[in-house]
Structures are given as structure tokens and as C-alpha cells.
Amino acid sequence: MLRIANDALTFDDVLLLPAYSQVLPSEVSLQTRLTRDITLNIPLLSSAMDTVTEARLAIAIAQEGGIGIVHKNLTVEAQAREVRAVKKFESGIIRDPITIDPDATIQTLYQTTLENGISGVPVVRGNQLLGIVTSRDLRFENRQNAHVVDVMTPKERLITALEGTSFAEITKLLHDHRIEKVLLVNEAFELTGMVTVKDIAKAQAYPMACKDSLGALRVGASVGTSGETDERVAALVEAGVDIVVVDTAHGHSKGVLDRIAWIKQTYPDLQVIGGNVATYDGAKALIDAGVDAVKVGIGPGSICTTRIVSGIGVPQITAVAEAARAADVEGVPIIADGGIRYSGDIAKALVAGASGVMVGSLLAGTDEAPGEVELYQGRTYKSYRGMGSLGAMSQSNGSSDRYFQEVEGDGRKLVPEGVEGRVAYRGPVGPIVHQLMGGVRAAMGYTGSKDIETMRTTPEFVRISGASMAESHVHDVAITKEAPNYPRIDFGSQYTQLIARRIRECGVYCEIYSYDVDEAFLQEFAPQGVILSGGPETVTVGETPRLAEAILDLGVPVLGICYGMQTLAEQLGGRVQASAKREFGHAKITAERPSALVGALGATQMSGADVWMSHGDKVIEVPPGFVVTASTSSAPIAAMEDSERHIYGVQFHPEVTHTANGNALLSVFALEICGCKGDWTAENIIEDAIAQVRQQVGDDEVVLGLSGGVDSSVVAALLARAIGDQLTCVFVDNGLLRLDERDEVEKAFGKESGIGNALPLKIKTVDATQEFYAKLAGLEDPEDKRKAIGNTFIDVFEREAKALPAVKWLAQGTIYPDVIESAASKHGNAHVIKSHHNVGGLPERMALGLVEPLRELFKDEVRQIGLVLGLPKSLVFRHPFPGPGLGVRILGEVKPQYADVLRRADAIFIEELREASLYDAVSQAFAVYLPVKSVGVVGDARRYEHVIALRAVETIDFMTARSARLPYDFIERVANRIINEIAEISRVVYDVSSKPPATIEWE
């Protein structure tokens, strides 16, 4: 019989109705109830997952005002240690400071300080305070057998405070006496606690931090229902845990309810959260068992497959609402666990009845989450897996009991309810939380909710269609600048570029083509060797990319890397299977037998070599004719080869810098095994390019838009040598260039440069400053400014080029990554990511042929060619400069006087970086003009002028970046120069944002 309880809704099925509001987002309170007795300052919990929450993330979340729940895939001792680390990180008043007896030896004292990572130890006998031993007392003490009483600072000289002294008074004591610790005593001079200057500083830095009554950060920990739970709860309580979460996939079950009742009976003062449930009855059962909060969610998580595997679940909005209907009667808070993708989802969960939300995937990619940052397909990620995945369930102290399963043997009988994957690396957690809570604040402003309780009870939902949700997202545009609170999930990339670059570094020419090239092309191209790159695919499931048989029929050496090795093994008769344990990160490889490739890494049968792994499948049987040449602890077949047919495979990535001597392996393959000559040098590249250009253009004239950037400058120098005065360069001065940039370009390419074998370039300089500023007048939006600058440049360039009637060709600085991104290579079948022209639309508008002499070169090769051609190093290695120039480094409307000020400030910054030998140490540095004013004093005069922001970043690929850790004295010197030398500036700030969530440029 068909029985349908009711319709159910999830986050994308509803929107919140806007309402009359007298509330500003900045005025709302985010404080909320976590349990019956504990309050949070923001409604956020981090998930108890082994790729999300350990001590470091729990500390960061608590400092922001939420709470972290430490996962249980740890030994009892290890989980308690993580909890203890959070409680001791910011202690407020340390109630149980480590002490030492006055009769202990100095050797014992040293051991105590080293084991506990402390520098000052109170000296007590019983509870009586006798003194303190600080690092100052021990600085010149060499007697290991001397006693503590001989070196300590005695109580007569101690700075102490009576129990109950305010933090303000304690802070004054620390400051007045220049000490780092104040000991708290009672009337009998017995030690009752300690306050350190570090803890006070942390409290001031994070005023919203979630703390207990003693000033320590709050932290929770998850437990299961298995036999060791008694021991685990006891250890957590002893470590100072604030909350225990009985974390199971189905909280509405007898074993869970009994365990909760036992914990509450044994530890009546301990706050207990129970879950997970998704119904009214489930929530009521947990409340009846004694929980202090109910966790709701069965199957909504991004890496959870419970609903697919078992067919069980309730869409999350309905699940939260039903649980809240039961919990509100008893005054028990609801926590929505899973399915949160955006800040708007948090707002919806609160309106549905939750008091807080638990998130995992949004935090898994942060610096503070467990695990290392991974390089995968040219981008950075961190591992993320469900607690119902095979990896999480099958490990020692794993999560199988959460799903009421037991590990048997090798774990193959486990039925997983989750998957393993990766999420994009997102930098520090602080900015992520800021964006999430900023979205919640906005929702509260729209609905007129002054606090979380009002949010839970007042706003209303409107049910929407799929079309409505599509309308809600960005649509009908290509995102050109990503917002920090609206991420695009992208697991694809052109990873093989890195392999090609490494081969070229060996002096061997290398091109990138699709895996399914046809035989005719291969015969024409006639490669001396083939490398099969890695990729995100798996050979164990469904239709997957397969190597063209024509490649193996060539009879040339073949090297398969990662997926390349797996598809070789599978196609040639070996066996590949999905691994129960994915391997991402460093591994130690050991040689199984002599091999030229493995030997290049430095690996032997006695000693290993460091390599970088990134795979889920593994080869379990090599094809006929192959032998195993290397292994790791989790990959018995880490390398294989058939030396007679010259076919090789490696499971690791030799192209990344994380693999020690990886370049040596690729060099052995290219030069020794394939027999390539290694003559791909800058000089030979120049010689070939000159011949090709002369053949292509003949006696025709060529026009080039010269910007002063690296690519166009190298093209200019190369064409000058190839065709001399057949080239005319148009340099457009748009009034948005760096200081003296026009003069530098004219000097670099003028009569004194010597470029082009003593033939100076014909440079047509166009001063279009007024034209550009007229188009920019009144524009403040960054995209409007970019569009105006781009369109004006095209108009100016087209006008000037048409004045050269003999011109038949347009030269551009297109380089090889542009070709790959455009899927525009001669034979490749790459997926089109974007179409690319350096001067957008000009070839079509002007009916010109294209000359692109750098289209087969990577950026580093372009720079080397520039040096050989005689371009100054300062030009070849200059930092990137945006196409719209200073137009997007002046926030708001662009005015000539603003550009003049910014030019001078930027020049000072760059000059100081060069003077301090820091210019080449950072990837990009620049100044930004802010449309705000600030008061300053210069000399004896008050100054009320604008603000300059300095920005410097370190990055490898510009996909992610972190702010450069420049010395404070350097930043101070730059700031002082800017303020003293530029009258229009009164204040300088330094941008410490990472990408993501921020972008490198400000607009």
C-alpha cells in the first residue's frame, strides 16, 4: 500500500519573504542558544568529521564566536588531547597551572617546561605559593642538580593579585611591571590561578570568542555508542570538554537513546547533544532521553549518500521544522546538520526552527582543517570525506559504529553511506565565517529580525519552483570576478601544462594533444616519445578516456603518469581497482628492482625517495611483460615498466615540486630513453620564430599594440629582429599607466636600445588621456570602468591602425597557456574554457591576419627569450599589471589627480621593494587609492586626506595567493615615505587578505 506522510522541502525549494524592517544588519544580535545551558555568539558549529575539526579549527571557530566539535576517529587519548589543546589555548584564568616543588632539581624543571611548552612555573609546597621560576631566572644557570629554591624569584618579590581582581586591574599590573604572568592568590597566599599576557592579548583580539565562565574557549567532542564510549566520555570530561555529541546516523534508535540516558545519569552537569534525527518523533525521543540539544539531518550532506544507498531521509527544511515543533515545547535548541552551501541556507535553517547550523564542506578547505593542501591538476585542494565513507569507517577508531556496522577483516563488507573527495583550498577560516555571518545579518535585516529568536519565529517562507531557484543564481553572464561568498565549484583544469613545462626545461620541445589523436596525425607529427598525463577520471567505473591504440603502435617510448599508468595497465591486460584508502600527499617510494626511471629519483631497495601521490584507484596486477619497479606502503605497484617495449608507468606525479628529483626522472625519460637532443633553447627558439615570421608575412607590414607588458614587449623585440621596419608599434597612453611607463617603453625600444640589430622600432605613441578620462567620468562600478577602458582602447587602436593602409597583419602576444585555454591548438580536442584574443575583437573588426610568434611558449620561456633579445631584466620580470591599468586600482570614480597620486605612491612602494631586495620575493605588489579620507598630522599641521592601501602577494599560479609577510619595519618605512612625500595622503594601510576569499586586485 502506498503511504505518503506529506510533502517535504529543502533549501532550494523556498525563499524568505522580505518584510518591513527597522533593523540594520550591523545592529542585529547573532547570539543564540546551543544547548539548554550554553550560549554561542554566532549560530555556527563545525562538523565532527576527521577532515574538518580537530583542535586548530575548533580554536579558530570558538574565537569567531561559534564552537568546534572534535571528531571521534581518534584514540580516546588523542581526542582528549585535542580537547585539552583548545581549553588551554586561551585560558583566561588558568585554574590549574603547572607547578613545581621547591626541592625539585633544575633538570626536573627543564623537563617540565619542555614537556608542557611553558616558560614560567609557580613554585608551591602544598598549595602555599613560595615563588616562581622564569626564563630570566634560568638564563645563566648551568647547575643541573641545583634546586629550584636556589634560583626562583621568592614570594617577597612576586607580583600577585587577590582572587576576584578584575581583568582591567590585572592588565594594569602586567603593563606597569613589564611582566608576562600574574599569579592569583587567596587571603592565605595559596595559589588559586594564573593570568598571562598572551591570554589577555588573545581576548582583546577576539572579543566575540565563545568562552566558559573561566575565560577558556568552549569546545565539544563527538562520541558513539560502542563499548569504549564509557572510557571516551570520562577522558573528555577530564580534559574539560563543554559538550558531548552522541553522533550517529540514526538517533531515533534504542542504543542511542540508552547511551544518552546513561551519560546524563553519570554526568548530570555535562551538556549532551543527540542525533541525528529528521522527524517530530525522533526529536521527542531524544528529548525524553535527556538531551540538551537535538541535531537534525539524515542525508543532506554534500558527501553523504545515505538517501541514495538506503532510500531514507527527509529534506532538510521540513526535517528541521518537524524537530523544532517537538523541541520548542521543551525549550530544547535544534541544530541543523548538513546541506548548507551558502549563507542564505543558514538563514533558511534558522527560520525553519534551528538555533544553529553545523557545517563541514564550507570549512574543510581552510588552513585550520586537518590535512595538507594538495596540488591536483594545477590547483590547490584539501581532502574531504564523509564519516560514512569507506576510508573513515574502516580505519582504526573509525566511524563504522556511527552507521551501526562493525569492521570485519579488510573492511570490504562495510556498506558505505558517504564518499571521499576534495574541496577547493580556501585559506584561513576567519574570512569564511565573516562572509557566512554577513549573509545571515543581511537576511535578518531583510526580515526585520533583531535577534536569532525573532528570526526563528517571525519570518515566513515562500515556496518556489526550479525556475525560481535558477533565477536566484547568477545567470546569463560569465563570472569574471568571483565573489567570496558565492564560490564556483571547479574540479577541472589543464593540468598537463606542468608536464610540458618540465619537459621543455630539459631542453626538449613538447606539445599537448588530446588522448584520442588519430593515426594520420601521429605519423605526421612523428614524436620521439609520448607522456600520458594524470586526470580526474577512473578506469574502474563507466566509460572513461582510453588511449588511442595508434600511440602504442608507434614503437616510441611511452610514460604514463597517475591515470596514464592506470589506463595503460587496464588496456594492456593488467588489473586496476578502486582503493579503499585514497592517497593524497607525500609518500615514501622504495625501488623493487633496478630501473633507470626510479633510480633517477634516488630511490633504492634500501632507502626511499619522497614523491607526491594523488589517486583513488590503484594497479593491483601489472600487464604481461611488465615488472614492478617501485612501491609505497599503500601502493604495492607505484611504478611499472616493460623495458623491451619501452613502456613505463608511475603512480606518482614527477612534474610537481613536491616530488624530490621528479625533474630528473622526466629528464631521463626524454633524453636517455627517448633519445631527444635537448636543443630546445632560447637561441634556437628565436631562430625558428624569425624564420616562421618572415615566411608568414613576406614583405607585408605588421601592427602591434605595445603595452609595456612582458608578452607584447617580447613580441616587439622578436619582430624587430625578424622584419625590421615592416613593424609599427602603437603605444596608447590612456592616462592610467604607472609612473614614467611611457618614457620607459620609448627608451627600451627607441634608438638607444639596440633591439632589432640597431634598427629602432617604429613606435607611434598616442596620447589618448583625455579621451579615456571622458569615457570614465561618473563611473564607479568596476565592471563599468573595465568596459569603458576596453572599448575606448579598441576604438583608439583601430583608428590609429587604419591610418597605416599598408598593414596586413596584427601581431599579438598570445602564449601557449592561452592556446590551451582556447582549445585552439592545431590538432587538439581540448574542452573550450574561453576564447582568447589579446586585443579583443580587433582581428575580426579590422580584417587582419594574426601573427603570434609566442603561441607555443610558456611564460618562463617568453621571459628567457626576452633576456636573450636584449630586453632589460626590469621589464622582463616586472610584476603583472591589469589591462585597465590604474583604472581598477582607484576605487570609485577615476580622476586625473587621483591617478597622479596613486602613481607616485605605487612608485615609492616598488622602489623600496627593489632597494630591500624584496621585489623578486613577492609575486605582485601595488598600491590602491581608496575613496575615503582620514585625519593625520604632518609636522605641526593637521591633514585630512585620502588613504593608500598597499598590497603584496605570494603565489605560484595566481589561482590562490596569500599576502606577503613583509617585515613591519619595511612597511613602516614605505608608509612614512608616502605620507611625507605625497601631501594628498594622510594614512597608509597594508592588505593582509588571502585569495580566496579576497581577490588579488581590489576591483
From TrEMBL:
K(+) binds at G299, G301, C304, E471, S472, H473. Residues 680-878 form the GMPS ATP-PPase domain. Its main location: cytoplasm. InterPro entries: Aldolase_TIM (IPR013785), CBS_dom (IPR000644), CBS_dom_sf (IPR046342), Class_I_gatase-like (IPR029062), GATASE (IPR017926), GMP_synth_C (IPR001674), GMP_synth_GATase (IPR004739), GMP_synthase (IPR022955). The keyword Transmembrane helix does not apply. One of its GO terms (cellular component) is cytosol. Its EC number is 1.1.1.205. Keywords: ATP-binding, CBS domain, Cytoplasm, Glutamine amidotransferase, GMP biosynthesis, Ligase, Metal-binding, NAD, Nucleotide-binding, Oxidoreductase, Potassium, Purine biosynthesis, Repeat. GO terms for molecular function: ATP binding; GMP reductase activity; GMP synthase activity; IMP dehydrogenase activity; metal ion binding. NAD(+) binds at D247, G297, I298, G299. Pathway: Purine metabolism; GMP biosynthesis; GMP from XMP (L-Gln route): step 1/1; Purine metabolism; XMP biosynthesis via de novo pathway; XMP from IMP: step 1/1. It is found in: Cytoplasm. IMP binds at S302, D337, G338, G339, G360, S361, Y384, R385, G386, M387, G388, E417. It catalyses: XMP + L-glutamine + ATP + H2O = GMP + L-glutamate + AMP + diphosphate + 2 H(+); IMP + NAD(+) + H2O = XMP + NADH + H(+); IMP + NH4(+) + NADP(+) = GMP + NADPH + 2 H(+). Catalyzes the irreversible NADPH-dependent deamination of GMP to IMP. It functions in the conversion of nucleobase, nucleoside and nucleotide derivatives of G to A nucleotides, and in maintaining the intracellular balance of A and G nucleotides. Catalyzes the conversion of xanthine monophosphate (XMP) to GMP in the presence of glutamine and ATP through an adenyl-XMP intermediate. PANTHER family: GMP SYNTHASE [GLUTAMINE-HYDROLYZING], GMP SYNTHASE-RELATED. This is Inosine-5'-monophosphate dehydrogenase. It comes from Symbiodinium pilosum. The gene is guaA.
